[in-house]
Amino acid sequence: IDGGATIDLVRIQVDTYANTYSAAKMLAGSVRSALEGGNVKATLKTDQDLFESDLKVYRVSQDYYVWQSN
What we know:
Blueprint: E1 7-18, H1 21-37, E2 43-52, E3 57-69
Antiparallel strand pairs: 1-3, 2-3
């Protein structure tokens, strides 16, 4: 009550690209393992599979949330 918040909720978007769907999902899985299992302790909120038709590549777009001290 005596001042501002001491922590912030930060959104991090990570997009992984690959020539095949399975490779894009594997990369996204590696990102998730690193962010959820490391010192950061991120939480996955959304995971969207996409195909970029103009580039002919698969993309997985992930949104993570992390609490951090300010």
